[in-house]
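Let us begin with a simple case.
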Amino acid sequence: MGFEALSILEHVSKALPEIEVYPDFLALRGGARLLTGRVPDGMQDLSHESLKEQPDVVLWRGVGAALLRDWKASGELFDLSIDAFYGYPEPLRTRFMLLAVEAAIATDSDKAASEWLARIEEKEYPVSAKPAVRYLRGVLYSKAGHAELAEKLWRQVARGTDRLYKIRAELALVDLGVATKSLTPAQAVDRLEGLRFAWRGDDLEFDILRRLGGYYLEAKDFKGGFAVLTQALRLFPSSVQGTTLRGQMVKTFHDIYMTELGGDLSPIDALSLYTDYKTLIPAGEEGNDVRRNLSERLVDIDLLDQASKLLEDLIKNSTKPEEKARTLSRLAGIKLLDHKADAALALLDQSQADVATLSQEIKDERQLLRARALSETGKYQEALAVLPAGSGQSTLLLRADMALRAKQWGDATKALMELVGPPPKAGAALREEQAQWLIHAAIAMAQNADFTGLDKLASDYSTAMDKTSKANLFHVLTRPEKMTQMKDIYAAQSRLTEVDMFRGVLDSYRKDKKN
């Protein structure tokens, strides 16, 4: 009669405040507080220095630790006070021993748990405790690999009238069904949804929500799972399992984006999940990996604005200057893919102060992007001025592209022929990309009325071009002998300024170069 006992003790302490320093009073009030659910207050009373060596108090501190789900501490305290259990009448003796069983099971001390159950069963115990005994015996059977025996006991309990153990047995049956594959995770969700509101307000409700959310995740309903688990953390912020659960959620969130776990998730659904649960992004480099992966998936389906926002988050969370610069370059490249040259220039200007510390590779990359952006805004001469030195393929592609857009046919021809290279040796073929560059060069020569150049082109490359898919068009461009062929030339020339020589380089920004 915990409430009645506590009421009397509180009345006494008001009348005689000095009694609160007496060990006997503290022991009685501590026990009464445990029985009424005021566990932290009870543990404070029972932990007083004057009580530490008393066997009965050690037992009650073990009870308090179990009620707080500090199973390791409670198991140790119960082991120190085995003899004290027998001094208590029912229902306290069995109630306390059941907590000792729970503590032993929670710490994987299955032999000790079995011994505690034997101590309960060696004497007559209250009928009201039978559901608990059967349920816990079923747990031990299950852990020992006797699934059928465990299921039989749990079904008996689940059909009973004890609400607490009826629900715990049902949870155990669902777990067993999933483990033996007689239930799918989706079917487990349906079963547990029926229990979701059957028990409210304590660790059991937390346990129901934790299991339910876990099965949602196993069924690949990630939003449903995170919604339930988030609710569990919100309803029980001080749960001892809360930190572990949140850690599991963060890991699952990471794995959805970085492993096959989220392989079937569409980019749109992946973005929606990220938006709703971005607080689960892991800290540091793991979180940045998630942002990179998702941005690539979004760029793949041309959701460039959404990908850009992710990369902005990545830049904010980058602590390494070189990595931050690479991400800025990628973001600028994506802005150019989206034909937002002014936005790309603004990004490159934003990080201009850090340029001196960057590698030459990144400096050249930034110059290429700046030149392309200037070219798109019609500033050909300014774009030429910022092109990186050298004759790398990316630089030549951009130089040719810029010249074609500006109708600077001579400059375009020069850059294109540098890309093509010298005529191949007899019998050798051109690569398809070389053949395409030659076609563009021939058109540029025709636009520039460079007939001498066209003749040399035909002389040097006709044999090699005959082995490519561009052979016929090349001959039409370099030897337009029939008037009907002139239409083909004019059609090719009219589309020349629409050609994007640099597109392949920009497309490389769809993927993070770190990967």
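The second case is a distinct protein. As before, the sequence precedes its structure tokens.
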Amino acid sequence: MAVIIYPPTIDWSYMRQRPQNLMFEFARNGHQVFYCNKKQLEHPCLEKVAENLNIVHNLDKFKERCLPVVKASGSPVIVWCSWALLANTLKDLQPDIIVYDCLDEFAEWLPYEPEMVGIADIVFCSSDYLLGRITSQYADKKVYLLNNACDFKRFSSDTSTVSKPADLPETAGSRIGYIGAWAWWVDTELVQKVCAAFPQHQVVVIGPNLGQPLPREYPNFVYLGLKPYEELPSYLAFLDVCIIPFRINETTMATNPIKAYEYLAAGKKIVSTALPEVAKMKPLVKIGGSHEEFLEHIRASLQTEHENPDQARVFAEENSWERRYMQIERILSVEVAGFNRPVTFNTELCNMEDNTFMCLHAVADLTISSSKPTTNLNFFPFLIGRTNKAINRYLLKFDPTGMSGQINKAVLTLFVEECDSPDKLKCIEVRRINGSWHEELTTWQTRPKTGPVPVAATQFYETSGWLEWDITPLVAEWAANPATNLGVELKGSKDTLPFLVRGVNRHRNDCFSPRLNIYLNNG
């Protein structure tokens, strides 16, 4: 059977979405799945959460310890990626096949898409909009439509005996509910109008708040936050009308909402704005082409019984994740040699304690900028280089205490999200810091002195992905004499064109945080 690796994009336990559901289906059908978490831990490297399904908590150790076992098994390795930003990191996973699962239309992701599609062997698209765009822009690619779906068994289960969740307030009226992220694509004005139009009913929102203001000024607005996926059916059971109040823009025109299928599986009355993918579900979903029509559909839904809940459930069952996997299997069985060939290997080998490799995350980091000479920027993504307005440098510290005499090689790595001056040669130097500093207090004006000669330097052209510097002698010195460990400063070289690198600082605590990979002596 094939091995499926899903590179770090979203944590396994955060909002069950398409990636988690598809990986469940691969595992249920006998494929060995490695789902890489964004948040990283030193131990354990792997966590088995279901048969054939492993969460990778330490990607570096996985690549060092487990990937050789996987490759030696002879199973085809499929890297299933849904985040274009990761395109030039996928080669590290040694894939035989790369699948790009194109899920959304976010403007900030589009610059990375050409590289992602370029290296992909197969592209799946979650909506007709995305399918049309990808096929028109990349005519030579194998592109397939793969809509979203639902966990039908979970959401269609009998909830007649389920107790009302304790944090769902009592109400004399009905409940109008939305389950999903509260983000910029939600039409807040429309939700405010719903609250105002139906003051006798509750408007219930369940899901994480991604920075969008909540209309708490309305007494009938109830925000319950993110809930475990397993608990959502019990909340759905107490919602009378379910809504999808999205703005209409390029992002939502391309979306195929999972929540629509989940609402249908639960047999709920549904009102949505005029999203193309949801409009295809009429008459099972009422479509409001304007705010007024949206409110009128809610009013009618509150006053009438569901026209055909059984038909809604039949539609949802036809659009389950099990059915989506069957689509995938038909395609990959043809495209991937050995996709269904029985092959097994011992994943316990991957969890063996590795005494030759350590991955250290930073204990302190800080961006300083000449444009804000008295400001501490420690929680900002790191900025390195020059612009026409500022010089930006990055201070970083690790703790290799206890490794004296054991270090064979030490490699500093940073993940670059974005870099100005494409096609121009750039260089980042690593310089030893010779003075004390504090990540919560240091500013450009109070920055510590650094060594006059770089410890290491890396030249590169613009691209997302990892940059590396071999700083073995310096780390060995830190391990032998911790008093010398004041960290390093990363700065743009004066010999190359001014540029700016944006990355991810350690406070994100995920796979893309800066780290120090240390290879220890075998003895």
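Residues 191 and 244 are 10 Å apart (CA to CA). The mean pLDDT is 92.
Keep these points in mind for the review questions at the end of the chapter.
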